[in-house]
Specification:
Length: about 160
């Protein structure tokens, strides 16, 4: 499948938000989770302007995206400790493209961006359903972290570039 990866445009915010929600819904999470995730999964024009956001397209259709965010200072987000450094904040693919190598292609592109910017490590909070993906691409599992959903955890990974 021919994939083009390009920087996101401000006008992509609506489709990226739709991809976020569709991709999360693929895993049959309860509706109440989406109330907690609403702000987190919504990609605004200012988010695109302020971060490194890239989309994956095939035949002119946006089918996925990822974002790399620089955290300048350690901080607590509720019960979650976020370390200073670069984070893969989002990586989502439309459900009909999950398992077709799109995520792997986006990660290869992310690695090339990191190399060009002298970023040596990227941290990742992984959805439990994505653990196998991060294991496959060679990210190092470092433990569990509380989630924004009470009683749930997410896996923490580090990807050395």
């Amino acid at each position: 499948m021919d994939i083009l990866i390009r920087p996101a445009l401000i006008k992509d915010s609506t489709i990226l938000t739709a991809i976020s929600f569709a991709s999360k819904r693929y895993w049959n999470y309860p509706d109440c989770y989406f109330d907690s995730w609403k702000d987190e999964l919504t990609i605004t024009p200012s988010y695109i302007k302020d971060n490194l956001v890239y989309v994956a397209e095939t035949k002119g259709q946006v089918i996925g995206y990822f974002s790399l965010v620089e955290v300048r200072h350690d901080f607590w987000a509720g019960k979650v400790f976020v370390k200073k450094g670069f984070w893969l904040e989002h990586i989502f693919v439309l459900p009909e493209y999950i398992g077709k190598g799109i995520g792997t292609q986006m990660m290869e592109y992310l690695i090339s961006i990191c190399k060009s910017k002298d970023v040596g490590r990227v941290r990742i909070f992984s959805d439990p359903n994505a653990k196998g993906f991060y294991d496959k691409i060679g990210a190092n599992y470092t433990g569990e972290s509380p989630s924004s959903i009470a009683g749930r955890t997410v896996s923490l990974y580090e990807l050395d570039i």
